[in-house]
Request: fold
Amino acid sequence: MNEHTIEDIVIVGGGTAGWMAAAAMSRFMNNGYTRVTLVESEEIGTVGVGEATIPPIITFNRMLGINEDEFIRATNGTYKLGIEFVNWGGLGERYFHPFGAHGEDLSGVHFHQLYLRERKRRVLQDISAWSMSAVAASMGKFARPPGDARFPVKDLYYAFQFDASLYAKYLRAYAERGGVRRIEGKITDAALRAEDGHVESVTLASGQVIQGDLFIDCSGFRGLLIEEKLGTGYEDWTRWLPADRAIAVPSKLAGPPEPITRATAHASCWQWRIPLQHRMGNGVVYSSQFLGDEEAERILLSNLEAEPIADPKRLRFTTGRRKASWNKNVIAMGLSSGFVEPLESTSIHMVQAAIAKLIALFPDKRFNPVERDTFNEQMRDLYEDVRDFIVLHYKATARTDSDFWNHCRTMEIPDGLQRKIDLFRAKGRVFREGYDLFGITSWVAVMLGQHIVPEDYEPAVDALDERRVAEALEEMRLAYLQTAEALPSHADFLAATGAAPAPVPTFSFDDDLPGFMPASGQPA
Ligand SMILES: Cc1cc2nc3c(=O)[nH]c(=O)nc-3n(C[C@H](O)[C@H](O)[C@H](O)COP(=O)(O)OP(=O)(O)OC[C@H]3O[C@@H](n4cnc5c(N)ncnc54)[C@H](O)[C@@H]3O)c2cc1C
Reply:
């Protein structure tokens, strides 16, 4: 510690982003001299949705030392092996975007290139037959692979689906055990330092003043500090992603929870379906240019599999990102830093990424601009990769059944995405660049799933013996199939690890559900 060391971190907001940040700070800034304070307002509340995740969340949990079984029990969570897309490429079609890789590369050649050549020679199954996660998902099976698993079990990648409010509560308990101080109250003002415009303190309605050296703005869409106080600016991406509304509603389960999220495209909106242990999370995402709120709600309610257990909740958003997530001594995380619709369950990951980058680039009171600029560049890359990947789902469609799909099919797209599509269409090439989140499997799954079919494959594939490739493909396919058959059902795995799927009769987004506290003190 020296005179420049950050001593007071103030987190503004106690939604998913605020408590994730608080939990991480309690673990990584537990140095004896950094104090962490979180301010939240029950009166304002949280968004309360955000229930499906992607595999890197496992790293976040491990970073915090969280025991996975305990975590799943505490959040009424389920496992997730990928996302099933229904009606996206065309009406009546479905495909699966799995976690983990498609197949094994051979002699340095990507699996999907082998698959593309083989598909020119004979009729082949969908590429998802070469994904451990996809094959297990198609059978409703799941088991957690051991750390030293080998092919094909090692290819079973997974994430979680959980109750957002229970997740925030779980992290709150973790953070408070780690020394984070929580203050309840509504922030009504923030003071800026005269010499450099840094935020000095926030003031609550009660008059209490909370001072800090570094502020993490997790105040949601409004961006209390990053925007309302510092006027950082917002890049609006509505021209590529026109959706600006969502309606969420939980419902009863119609059967045992499956280990997948489903995204079903309707004529002018799409609907999510996220199975948890005790209920189904549902919602529609739509553009107010193409669909009214009443009609969207009617579509949502008429497409539920079982009866709703709360009133629908309407949400508005503008897709885009804050021009800089880190401005002065304020770092925005979560909805205050940007939002891309939940089609690929990426928002919680963006919080995790911001936390990891902040820890890696943690400043001192001098706030070296190179740390801020590096953080901002990496976050921009990440946001743009997510944006382009989501735009792909809308653009690559053959649907002509509504003004909405005609708009999406014919709209301009970002240059980088157009280049990705052109590269894939020519010879199936996909490259991961910069701080991209989505890898080859993801791009291949969605492009093939939505009919962007390469005209050719890489010439390097022709250096490999045709018979050897055909045999290897068949061996892999059988290995995934037989392994999946031997796995327990997802429901049995949940039961065996102590999660008790018990239907909850009523639910509201603000319900204070009991039973989330971990049994042990520090996580295992
Ligand atoms: C429709 C929809 C579906 C989504 N689905 C997914 C998904 O499946 N997967 C995923 O990863 N993400 C999803 N997300 C995103 C996810 O919900 C958010 O990323 C996550 O909840 C983080 O929100 P937050 O904490 O930034 O904001 P919020 O939940 O809005 O929290 C803001 C906090 O700031 C506090 N606050 C605000 N103003 C003040 C003030 N003046 N004084 C004191 N406190 C204040 C509030 O009380 C609250 O505690 C979805 C989002 C939407 C809109």
Summary: The longest strand covers residues 245-251. Residues 369-395 form the longest helix (27 residues).
